[in-house]
Amino acid sequence: MSTPVLELDSLSVGFATDRGLVRAVEAVSFRVAPGEMLAVVGESGCGKSVTALAVMGLLPGSAQVGGRILFDGRDAREAQRGRDLAMVFQEPMTSLNPAFTAGEQVAEALRKHRGLAPRAAFDAAVEMLSRAHIPDAARRARQYPHQLSGGMRQRVMIAMALACRPRLLLCDEPTTALDVTVQAQIMALLDELRRETGTAVVLITHDLGVVADRADQVAVMYAGRVVEAAPAAQLFATPQHPYTVGLLGAAPRLVGGGGRLASIEGTVPDPLNLPPGCRFAPRCPFAVARCNEAPPLAEVSPGHSAACWRAPLDQVLAA
Amino acid sequence: MAVWLLRRIGQIIPTLLILSVLIFALQQLMPGDPALILAGEERGDPQVLAQIRAELFLDRPLPEQYVRWLWRALQGDLGFSWRIREPVAVLILQKLPVTLQLGGMAFVIACCIGVPLGVLSAVYKGRWPDVLVNAVALAGISTPNFWLGIMLILLVSVNLGWLPPSGYVPLFEDPWQSLKTTIMPAFVLGNAISAVLMRHTRAAMLNALSQDYVRTARAKGLGERVVVLKHALRNALVPVVTLGAIELGRLLAGAVLTEQIFTIPGFGKLIVDAVFNRDYPVVQGVVMVVAVITVLLALLADVIYLLVNPRLRHA
Ligand SMILES: Nc1ncnc2c1ncn2[C@@H]1O[C@H](COP(=O)(O)OP(=O)(O)OP(=O)(O)O)[C@@H](O)[C@H]1O
Ligand code: SF4
Ligand SMILES: [Mg+2]
Asked: With a threshold of 0.95, does the pTM exceed it?
């Protein structure tokens, strides 16, 4: 197997706060192969954004980072943000600078990393904006963010992130803040540009439905840990962690037209007061005495791993 | 935008009218009969007094006096100084450039000190540069102008002999000498404002630096210098510029005292002398001009705010 574009080796991130240490991310490991799309899925607060920001090196100073982050086999801190790896954020409304035009903001990256002259950079930015399917890109490029809709702004963000053809793109819930119809358009755009540029993508989402037909690999996170990781098809066909099973129940069914929208009982644990063993135990219908110890992420079948004492679940579910 | 500007100018007119009525009314409340002052030696003669009153329309009803005064003021005729026997407008035009030079320099100094220090303390929030800058700003705000002025004169002029302690040379006569006579008073005048600007800048920068677009700029791989000085500062300057223009108006008030200390023949000296001499036309004229300048500065602040804020420019 070729060198992964991104490899996390037991990444941990803690925040020292007034109320104590918040262990936002703990022992997270995964790999992303070149050109591949990895979906990171989990409920709000499970550490998805923190993981992405750690990869980008954009965590605030209060963060304590442990473990290793490798970009193309080397320390990610040596990678150049904006050129080697880029990120699209959760909040399109506020992620663009209100004081500069859309075109300028895309051109800025091109000037910095490709050494283009201002005019050439602006032209390249317009070109990039039209590739992001912004109609009338030359005019839009001269507009300020407040003159653009949310979907349009997210297209600008995507154009900006992909302008220098990074090897890796981190998308942090790129469509959460948008209308449903716009969501689908943005996802389609990401797919299209990803195929064109060969960029590997880490797609962060809390919506399993979004990743079903797009992602190659899926990592499910719960309370700061990866609880299950597998190729997408396998994960959807045979989920091995009780949390994933619950999430699949909670995700709007795309097939079968059942429209069932089950949800998982209970709430996410307080990050300051995590349960000692398996963090899902308080909500887990399958919990047993042994769950007081933390289960390791272990392979249940080739390429498919889960962090659960009772995995593989097949027998449990059959029973 | 043009419509907005016209409307904004339209709003100024009633403001100025109310101000003029206020100034005129206050004038009437001042103790002392101007006719008596003007009569001088002949103040015992009722006929002379009556004649002076008639000449100056002081015997007419107040509303008429006001309208006459305002009408002439609109044509640039602010009356004659009762003391110096010169047109008030001429006196003002002589002194105004001096004070504007002083105020302008003070403002430039205040910006040069306040904005960079504000940026510095925001970037190093909670660390020693921030603590130091805040201590300096606090000292700056709490130092009285007259004390700072006197200390500077003692140190720089008397002890070191670097700059003249007082006096004024007009800018166009000898720019270098003019700068030497005004730099110290301008520094004294700008001192308090620079502390205010520093605090505004610090607050605005802290706000800007916590915004998502700053994270985006970092994600693009821009250097920290570009992130701070381009992406954050550009946005932080929007409120700072507006507040700065308003502070500029307050500078004029501070100029009165500073000009006294450094014996600079500007507006401050003109108004102090006029008040002591009960030279009402001069007081009226000066206060009116200051009011107009202040209102115009507020307008300027709004226009700048509009120019630097694209969100409003297109609204
Ligand atoms: N700067 C910080 N200081 C302290 N705690 C933080 C900080 N940033 C994040 N956290 C905590 O880390 C945990 C994970 O946050 P994160 O933003 O990664 O969640 P998320 O999975 O992205 O959720 P969402 O779906 O809501 O975006 C949360 O409990 C959050 O409160
Ligand atoms: S380890 Fe136990 S508590 Fe945790 S998910 Fe598996 S069965 Fe549930
Ligand atoms: Mg998030």
From this structure: no
